[in-house]
Amino acid sequence: MREPNSTLTDALLDPILERDPAGPRVTWYDDATGARIELSGLTLANWAAKTANLIRDEFALSPGARVAVLLPAHWQTAAVLLGCWWAGTEVVLTPDPDADLALVTPDRLDDADGVGEVAVLSLDAMGTPVRDLPVGVTDFASAVRVHGDQFLPGGFRAALDGLSVGEVLSMARKSAAAQGFSTGDRVLSSTPWETVEELIDGFVAVLYAGASLVQVVNPDPAGLDHRVVTEKVTVRR
Predict the structure, then answer these.
(1) Which residues have a Cβ under 8 Å from the Cβ of 174 and sit 6 or more positions away?
(2) Where are the beta strands (DSSP E) in 157-228?
(3) What are the distances in angstroms from CA 72 to CA 69, 121, 152, 209?
(4) What is the mean predicted confidence (pLDDT) over 169-196?
(5) What pLDDT is recorded for position 24?
(6) Contact by Cβ (8 Å): 82, 9
(7) What integer pLDDT is reported at residue 8 of this predicted model?
(8) Cα–Cα–Cα angle for 43, 235, 51, rounded to 5 degrees
(9) Mean pLDDT score of the chain, rounded to an integer?
(10) For the whole model, what pTM was predicted?
(11) Is 34 exposed, middle or buried (0-12, 13-18, 19+ CB in 10 A)?
């Protein structure tokens, strides 16, 4: 099994950035609005670095801190997760009042009750801030954009919901093999990332295999065949 340099993000992104930094890595659709956003491996890494710098420098979290990521399957969520892992923090996917930081959408602010630091993501493609937030709650889009797009990781090797980096990578390897992912595949998915299993099967395993993800929310079945052709999909899950 591929060993991480220090974090889960290193293990997932380093091979991609060495082999194909400019190729599409996450392509996100919302069929309800017609939105489409595509990130290369390098752009994904830059946004992850901004997130990691925000976590370390603005929220002053040390490696080993816990971050509740209460976000849907989204291109920004992909960057947030990788940023959390780069910063050495442990991601949890359910509300946790003992978390050091919660990253939520506006409709899930109540799920962050009791958490010391809270940041809200509008998930707007243009980075529109969330207005009229409660005192002490951070607008993620406004805060993250001022941080650097390079990050030097180090420290505690935290991962996901009590699992170590090695355990997550082992699960990702098995998942990628079971689903038939390989380097260069384009994987079409509409699976949410609400559980550890869904996140590993639908996101981590894709990156582990060196594949790229076409993530669709609110999928329109009538457009499926056309999307398979236009996005050169090789695997449907």
Answers:
(1) none
(2) 186-189, 212-217
(3) 9, 11, 27, 22
(4) 97
(5) 97
(6) yes
(7) 93
(8) 25
(9) 93
(10) 0.94
(11) exposed
Place of tokens 């990781």: 153
Q: What is the DSSP letter of 33?
A: T
* Residue 162 pLDDT greater than 60, yes or no: yes
Report how far apart, in Å, the C-alpha atoms of 125 and of each of 43, 84, 113, 147, 154 are: 14, 20, 27, 18, 30
What pLDDT digit, counting tens, does each position of 39-79 carry? Answer: 999 999 999 999 999 999 999 999 999 999 999 999 999 99
Which amino acid, one-letter code, is at 101?
L
Residue 186 contacts residue 231 (beta carbons within 8 Å): yes
**Minimal CA–CA distance to 16: which of 214, 211, 221?**
211
Q: Is 118 exposed, middle or buried (0-12, 13-18, 19+ CB in 10 A)?
A: buried
Q: Output the pLDDT for position 119.
A: 97
User: Tokens at residue 53, please?
Assistant: 């710098």
Contact indicator for 151, 6 with CB cutoff of 8 Å: no
User: How long a stretch of residues is the chain?
Assistant: 237
Tell me the one-letter amino acid at 135.
V
List the structure tokens of 198: 């869904």
Q: Are 49 and 148 in contact (CB under 8 A)?
A: yes
